[in-house]
Amino acid sequence: MMIESMISAVLQVMLFSVLPFIWWFCTAKKEQSFLTWLGFQKPIIMDKGRFALFFVLSSVVLVVPNTALILFYIDRSLVAANQFAGLGLAGVIPALFYAIIQTGLSEEILFRGFLLKRLAKSFGFHVGNLLQSIVFGCVHGAMLWSALPVLVILLVVLSTGLAGYVMGWLNERIAGGSIVASWSLHSIVNLIAASLFMFKF
Questions:
Q1: CA–CA separation, 22 vs 20, rounded Å?
Q2: Where are the domains of the chain?
Q3: Distance CA 171, CA 32 (A)
Q4: Residue 99 in contact with residue 81, Cβ under 8 Å?
Q5: What is the 3-state secondary structure (H, E, C) of the chain?
Q6: Is the overall model pTM greater than 0.90, yes or no?
């Protein structure tokens, strides 16, 4: 399972990087490197206490509604983290690849590194962040479209859209434009979800 997790994680990062790379290559390669253009830089944190508080509160805000959805509305077999169900400690390394690379890194590259930054440049931060969070939520809802009632799909879109908005705010308003902040938060939230399945909570 570990090799499969590694391969799957790398392939997803590559897939999610194709459009951003083409866009960068055609529009910005002379201005800055691809990684800088995406926001791969050390976070610039002026107020570490504010950052820590926002990070912890964001973790709670992201974990609680999504956990409630899984517990009360969504068949657990439909959740990506279900692949770790009952594995216990044997699932730790694959779950790390899943949480940090496959979902955390790939989604942050596409949604906060590429989409948010391009939309914010065109429409300003507030509109850009709202638009990317709507797209983020809708993509997650679309993945479950055929398996869940419309009301539950709407809850999925709202909860993941909120997550996208919070992560965009964290990057651009608290961490100086670095996607490392949202990548860390996204990875922690996904690792918590995977752990709940691994240890059958």
A1: 6
A2: 2-25+47-198
A3: 19
A4: no
A5: CHHHHHHHHHHHHHHHHHHHHHHHHHHCCCCCCHHHHHCCCCCCCCCHHHHHHHHHHHHHHHHHHHHHHHHHCCCHHHCHHHHHCCCHHHHHHHHHHHHHHHHHHHHHHHHHHHHHHHHHHHHCHHHHHHHHHHHHHHHHHHHCCCCCCHHHHHHHHHHHHHHHHHHHHHHHHHCCCCHHHHHHHHHHHHHHHHHHHHCCC
A6: yes
The reported pLDDT for the residue numbered 161 is 95
- Which residue type sits at 46? M
pLDDT tens column, 5-47: 899 999 999 999 999 999 999 999 999 999 999 999 999 998 9
159-169 pLDDT, tens digit each: 999 999 999 99
Rounded Cα distance between 46 and 173, Å, is 11
